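seq as requested:
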Amino acid sequence: MNTDRVLAIILGGGAGTRLYPLTKLRAKPAVPLAGKYRLIDIPVSNCINSDIFKIYVLTQFNSASLNRHIGRTYSFSGVGFRDGFVEVLAAQQTQENPNWFQGTADAVRQYLWLFQEWDVDEYLILSGDHLYRMDYGDFIKHHKDTNADITISVLPIGEKTASSFGLMKMDDSNRIVDFSEKPKGDALKQMQVDTTKLGLTPEEAKEKPYIASMGIYVFKREVMVDLLRRSTEQTDFGKEIIPGCANEYNIQAYLFNDYWEDIGTVEAFYDANLALTQQPKPPFSFYDEKRPIYTRGRSLPPTKMLNCQITDSMVGEGCILKDCRIHHSVLGIRTRVESGCDIQDTLIMGADFYQPFVERNDDHHNSKVPIGIGANSTIRRAIVDKNACIGTNVKIINKDNVEESNREDEGFYIRSGIVTVLKNAVIPDGTVI
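struct tokens:
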């Protein structure tokens, strides 16, 4: 499928309050993933693997690290991509519009003047916080083959999770005719559809009788321009603009029956990362030579493991691990774990730099606790953000089984029972969480 005339627009999301404190100092798409990647690498890599090289990323909050990552990672100059770019567009105030982005549609509307400068046929709208692998060429081919004005990528789901999504119903031609946002009870039952029409087997259709929007859309150029210009009070694609035009436009469903995870909460983020260690086959794999996930290339040394016991885990480059036990965990780049540590069911994001030897061993240094995991510490079911300084003999085990707690002044949060140590936090020697 020729995708030369497609412009991709990746929505960076709002303040990311459900992912806080991971979004305290960074935009949601810049949150680290799988030891060495960032969330934004997923949709950008899907675009590149689908031969889509005109990519904008719309963001509003804490975009400095996202700007830096994209600038250092995705440079298409001199490698044969005509008009290729990945560019961040931050929310801005103008004389015509003094407001920040009010929603997904409003974000695109505010930069519509720029998007219209490109001679393209379709706009591909993506989210910056989903984990999945998709060939957008197939998505766009379906859009063209059905002569759709708008095509929505949908996921077949079961009743247990259906009320958490925007659901849709179709007619016999797979045209979407009804929408319902997170329905419950009888309203949920009324949204059941025959998913065999989308290609599921009768067994699969019985197990998954609902179709949910993935928040991924293809618009005909002129359709999106028209809708955004005439519906200036409507700020969201999924809740307002698309449901409001169903009677007027041909809106088609494109079935994506594969792994997809909306990483919108701390618990979902934690589960998605730890699932990568699953054996024999994880639900999502970064080990696909034909459709790789790209990220920033770093000249880091190999990871050094000195008398360690490591099982069912992923370890990034440049780590130094000494005489420790690590099980069912993901360790990010430059992670340092000292001797006697026991780490299980944990995501450690690593560090942005190596701390000089003199600084690590200087008792008069400001923090007094070096970056990394100090000797004889135990960590269970936790997320340790970048550059955290965990002292010696620390226990991060949620000993009181707390579900929710804001202890930001002490360097950590607890969300859904998962202890999250903040970026740059210092946890003193002997602390028990």
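The CA atoms of residues 247 and 264 lie 31 Å apart.
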